[in-house]
Amino acid sequence: MPRTPEENERIRRATTEQILKATMDMFIEKGYHSTSIDDVAKRAEISKGLLYHYFKGKEDLLAALVKIRLNDILVVMNTAAAKETPGKQIKYIALGALEDVRRQPEVFRFYLNLFTQPKLDPVVAKYSKMLMDEQARQFEVQTEMFQKLGVKNPRQRSLYFSSTLQGIMLMFSTYPENFPLEEVKVQVIEEFCCL
Fold first, then answer.
1. Are residues 108 and 172 in the same domain?
2. N or C: the chain end with fewer CB closer than 10 Å?
């Protein structure tokens, strides 16, 4: 009995997710350049041929992961912007970022590593720039939130907020067993959202 279009779509989505999870695992484990298509196919437990049916190659896999990350950033910022007060908007950003790193610290380290790759690598630089450009756009949105909150020098406050979050995320992703994330989360909310 032939599969329905819905069943085909479900299989396609599940296989794509399986491939992208395997890709992220391998990029985290070995890095972008040291990971081969063979590595990804083996981790995903599929043939190379099937992998190539879904993605043209390793750069296509990186592009898909970056697209997901960009979408995640937009979802967080759009949801934050929909909150009724600037304090609640900023709180949503902080809690979302810290929850994200709590759930998947290794993914945070992967994207941080992508940001710090040499700009001479044209493939990695292209995707790193895409992430940086989106973060710069979202930084402007965040700065407007601080402006509406009525803080002095909202741009500087926004930069300090982002730097604080990035530092916390780096520390937690490096020392997840010993970092008091919940206590620090409370401190961030008190410092930035309760003016």
1. yes
2. N
